[in-house]
Write a structure and sequence with these properties.
Largest sheet: none
Number of strands: 0
Mean pLDDT: 82
Number of helices: 3
Length: 100
């Protein structure tokens, strides 16, 4: 963000220079989307992974997500568990995107 504050007829000025190369990556910039994770897994392993599997592994790794508003209608609805080979591929993608 760039902001210019000015006052007419000011007697003195303050100049501030910010070097963007030295700034750290923000939390929002370090997050990959589900589509980016799917594409990474597809390119590197040839496997297709679902959003459900990605969400399960993000939860296991402690990555906090927003609340899911598309919840199951029944309380005892079961979800399939992510297979080990897809789990490894997703974890590798999360590491590549520096999310874990």
């Amino acid at each position: 963000m760039v902001c210019l504050l000015s006052k007419l007829h000011a007697g003195h000025h303050i100049e501030v220079e910010v070097n963007l190369d030295e700034m750290d990556l923000t939390a929002a910039e370090s997050k990959a989307t589900y589509e980016e994770i799917k594409e990474y897994v597809r390119e590197h392993t040839g496997l297709k992974v679902s959003n459900l599997y990605i969400a399960q592994l993000k939860r296991e790794c402690g990555i906090i997500e927003r609340e899911n508003y598309n919840k199951a209608k029944s309380e005892d609805a079961t979800q399939p568990k992510c297979p080990p080979e897809k789990e490894e591929a997703i974890v590798e993608a999360l590491k590549a995107f520096q999310m874990i």
